[in-house]
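Below sits the subject:
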Amino acid sequence: MNICLNDKIFRIVSEVVTAEGIKAYLTGGWVRDCLLKRDHPGKDIDIVVIGSGIDIAEKIAHSIDPEIRVSVFKNFGTAMFHWKEYEIEFVGARKESYQRGSR
């Protein structure tokens, strides 16, 4: 799995979330592709943070390059930006609840 995490983006994410004192988790297709040992895990990177995905996306983008434009989707509590060939999306972890008979 370490070979999948060698890209500079993961070092940057790690440094920022460590400095901010929050936890972040790599999820989605990137993880799947690494576990399946595919040659290239793809270009979409999904990260879940304990806290605000929007805030951390902005901080990480700014630490890479202050000119990076972060797209914010407030209705979903997500944010994303493009860097190199990657599309990096952040979401804050949330608790969902459903009415007993709704599912």
Observations:
- The two ends are 36 Å apart (CA to CA).
